[in-house]
Design a protein that fits this description.
Order of helices and strands: HHHEEEHEEEEHHHHHHHHHHEE
Radius of gyration: 22 Å
Distance between the termini: 29 Å
Strand order of the largest sheet: 3-2-1-4-7
Strand content: 15-25%
Shape: elongated
Number of strands: 9
Helix content: 40-55%
């Protein structure tokens, strides 16, 4: 049993004793089980992240379910006739369940059979919500303090006030939001972590590239993904909102930043350049950029954003790999060796 599981079990003693249930297992530990170890029963607390209705070759319905907690996720199939088929067919993504199942594998991947499930709501859900949602491994208060320190270093007063206005305008959700659904920093406080890390990298790299305007680069790093607070719903299973699908975080972020710049009175040239960073930071139109980066600062921010997105995806995959020799990193479209080099 991992240290994380031991902490989880200890924290749930009251929950367990009150209901006389076995201690739930974390998904990361279940996924570390090997197929050759055979099948066994388990209990897990998990969020239903998605439920897709599919058809077999014979036209019968089955469900493709994804469950997750703050250590990982697994997918499984549920066929008509299963005791939980009707339960999940009309279930709402983001709902929490106490899941009872039997370990199993499909094409080498952990894909258990779900025997029964109980919806968790109200005060019971409030007591365990922190164990269900993936959360940044870094202290959010410390990250927020450091981010504001970077903002204070912006020498241009109007530009600094524009950044502060934009963040205050969207509210505390900026500090809690995920940065993605799956690709990178896809957890609570993920947007804060990603924005801070890009600002850190920019600060470290600026001395190497004196032709980059430092104020614009730091402001762009901090604000480049601010539209994601609207693009994604918040909660146990974030998904893209209606306006997020129709407009995307690039356009939404541009609107937030433009409003802030106009309210503060940022001069037109700086506002245009800051807006360009937001509009171009995705790199390529096929990746979601409105335009390709065409200023030194926009190229700088776009490159840093891409680097941290990939490394963030790699970091999350390595942390969830357990004892596996290789881990799939979806954002990189490859498997990565988990073993550290021997010197």
């Amino acid at each position: 049993m991992s240290d994380q599981t031991q902490d989880f079990a200890s924290s749930l003693n009251d929950w367990q004793n009150e209901r006389l249930k076995p201690v739930p297992e974390k998904i990361a530990d279940l996924k570390n089980l090997r197929e050759e170890d055979g099948k066994r029963t388990f209990v897990a607390l998990a969020v239903l992240r998605s439920c897709q209705i599919k058809l077999t070759k014979t036209g019968n319905e089955f469900l493709l379910l994804e469950f997750g907690d703050n250590t990982g996720s697994f997918s499984t199939m549920c066929f008509d006739g299963s005791p939980v088929f009707d339960e999940f067919r009309d279930a709402i993504a983001g709902s929490a369940y106490e899941v009872h199942g039997i370990t199993d594998f499909y094409q080498g991947r952990f894909s258990p059979k779900i025997d029964s499930a109980r919806l968790i709501e109200g005060e019971e859900l409030d007591a365990i919500v922190e164990y269900l949602a993936p959360v940044s491994p870094h202290n959010p208060d410390e990250m927020q303090t450091e981010l504001f320190a970077f903002i204070e270093r912006i020498e241009d007063e109007a530009l600094r006030e524009t950044v502060l206005y934009a963040i205050n305008d969207v509210g505390d959700v900026f500090f809690k939001s995920t940065a993605a659904v799956k690709m990178h920093h896809a957890y609570v406080f993920g947007l804060l972590e990603h924005s801070l890390k890009t600002a850190r990298m920019a600060s470290a790299l600026l001395p190497l590239y004196p032709f980059i305007d430092a104020d614009l680069a730091i402001a762009g790093c901090i604000l480049h993904d601010i539209g994601k607070v609207i693009e994604y719903s918040q909660g146990l299973a974030p998904d893209r909102t209606k306006i997020g699908v129709l407009q995307g975080h690039v356009v939404l972020g541009y609107r937030i930043v433009r409003k802030a710049g106009l309210k503060v009175g940022l001069n037109k040239e700086l506002l245009m350049r800051l807006e360009h960073i937001i509009l171009s930071h995705q790199g390529e139109p096929e990746w979601g950029a409105a335009v390709r980066a065409a200023t030194p600062e926009a190229i700088f921010v776009s490159t840093i954003d891409n680097f941290d997105a990939k490394m963030g995806a790699l970091d999350a995959s390595l942390r969830s790999a357990g004892d596996a020799e290789f881990v799939d990193v979806g954002a990189l479209k490859t498997k990565v060796l988990t073993e550290k080099p021997i010197h």
